[in-house]
Design goal:
Layout (H helix, E strand, L loop, with lengths): L1 E4 L5 E4 L4 E6 L3 E5 L4 E4 L3 H42 L3
Length: 88
């Protein structure tokens, strides 16, 4: 989810996967896949950057989780090798 600001300065969080397109008309208007339109204070470039940053954080988190899982699997495998060698 990304946080944006309505024209009345109230904050809202929008699921960025539901944004169909963003346009400047002259205010920034987000059209959601449902057809609903949301007008926000942030410019088009800022909305795009927030979506990019959110998705980047998701991918980095997934990468870290996969790396940690691989390290754990390797550690378990090494322990199994030591146990097998010691007969135990």
């Amino acid at each position: 989810m990304i946080q944006l600001t309505r024209l009345n300065n109230s904050r809202l969080a929008i699921n960025s996967d539901l944004i169909k397109f963003v346009e400047a008309a002259p205010d920034t208007v987000l059209t959601l896949v449902s057809g609903e339109k949301v007008v926000v204070r942030e410019g088009v470039a800022e909305v795009i950057e927030r979506v990019r940053e959110f998705r980047r954080s998701i991918l980095c988190g997934a990468h870290s989780a996969f790396r940690l899982a691989a390290e754990n699997a390797k550690a378990v495998s090494s322990q199994d090798d030591v146990s097998a060698e010691s007969g135990g």
